[in-house]
Every structure is written in structure tokens, then in C-alpha cells.
Design goal:
The chain is mainly alpha-helical. The protein has one domain: Orthogonal Bundle (Arp2/3 complex 21 kDa subunit ARPC3). It is built from seven helices and two strands; from the N terminus they run H-E-E-H-H-H-H-H-H. It is a multi-pass membrane protein. Its main location: membrane.
Length: about 190
């Protein structure tokens, strides 16, 4: 991995930490709060995927979660440590890594970048994939049916769709402003 790639991976892990400074919005009926950190997942997927590749987007989220596991209080509300991986939110954290990878993979395959294409990538990876991991783990940790956890998760949808729109808009703007482009394969 080149140093510049490592810097961009680290930068998006830092963005996740910065978004964790914003306080969580607790829901009275669910132990999983609303946070702005899924916006960071979507941005990492879109920007790193469009320029460097899917593995770099996933690595940025993995680096972030490793810092959290090491005890850094980077999650919304100042949470950190191994204990957070044994809460109803744990599946969503795992979903961040896979979601960023899926978003990036979809963005990598885009011939022309557009707001609508970015929105679709963010809905698929940033909402559906994250929920695919988050809902079953939430159900297991709360000892409820997956269908009940899915109904509880409907409360997240309006905010997540707003984050999809914001991330897509920012990603399209950043696509042309970021100073790195995909590198041509080296000649042999």
C-alpha cells in the first residue's frame, strides 16, 4: 500500500471519529441511537471507491473500529473499548465495514458519476447492507425476533435517507475536487 493510500484511509477513519463528536440521538424504544457516523461510511465508500478501490474504503472503517476496540472514545457519545462490540449496535459496526466496501465497489464500476448513481450506491451499501448486519445482531442481543428489530429499525430510515442525499451530494462534488485519480497500471 502506498503512503498516499494509507493517508486517505486514515483520513476517512478520522472523519468517522469527527462525526462521533456529534452527540447520539437516543430512541426511547431502542438501545441503538441515531448517529451521524453512517454518513462517514457513505463518504468513505463513495470517495475512496471512486478513486482508490473498495478495499481502501473497507480498510478505513476497519481502522476506525480497531481504534474504537483499543479504547479510543470515537463512537458517538464518547463510547469506545471492546465492550461496545457486545451491545445491540455491534452488528451495525460490522455493517459499516461491509457497507463501505459495497458502496465503493458500486462507485468503482460507475462510468459516469452522478447524484442518482451515488444515491443508489449509498442506499444499497449504506442502508440495506448495514441493516442486513445490524438488525439480526440487534435482535439477538435484545432477545427479540428479527422482525421486531426490523420494525424498530424503521425509525432510522428517514435520517438515513437524509444522510444518503447529503453523502451523495458531497461525493459528487468531491469526485472532481479530490487531488487523486485512479492510477494507470504500471507498464511491464
Amino acid at each position: 500500500m502506498k503512503l498516499t493510500h494509507l493517508i486517505y484511509v486514515s483520513m476517512f477513519a478520522a472523519i468517522m471519529g469527527a462525526l462521533g463528536v456529534l452527540p447520539p440521538i437516543p430512541l426511547g424504544f431502542s438501545p441503538v441511537p441515531i448517529t451521524m457516523q453512517t454518513l462517514g461510511v457513505m463518504l468513505a465508500g463513495c470517495v475512496l471507491g471512486a478513486h482508490l478501490g473498495a478495499r481502501y474504503a473497507a480498510l478505513s472503517q476497519l481502522l476506525f473500529l480497531l481504534l474504537v476496540a483499543a479504547g479510543a472514545p470515537l463512537l458517538s457519545g464518547g463510547r469506545g473499548g471492546l465492550g461496545v462490540f457486545f451491545t445491540p449496535s455491534a452488528g451495525y459496526f460490522i455493517g459499516w465495514v461491509v457497507g463501505a466496501f459495497v458502496i465503493a465497489l458500486l462507485c468503482q464500476r460507475m462510468k459516469n458519476v452522478s447524484f442518482i448513481k451515488m444515491m443508489l450506491a449509498n442506499i444499497i451499501g449504506g442502508v440495506l447492507v448495514i441493516y442486513l448486519f445490524g438488525v439480526p445482531v440487534q435482535a439477538w442481543m435484545m432477545q427479540i425476533a428479527v422482525s421486531e428489530a426490523a420494525v424498530l429499525s424503521l425509525a432510522f430510515l428517514p435520517g438515513d435517507l437524509l444522510k444518503v442525499a447529503v453523502a451523495s451530494l458531497l461525493a459528487v462534488r468531491l469526485y472532481h475536487a479530490v487531488p487523486f485519480k485512479k492510477e494507470a497500471p504500471a507498464a511491464r
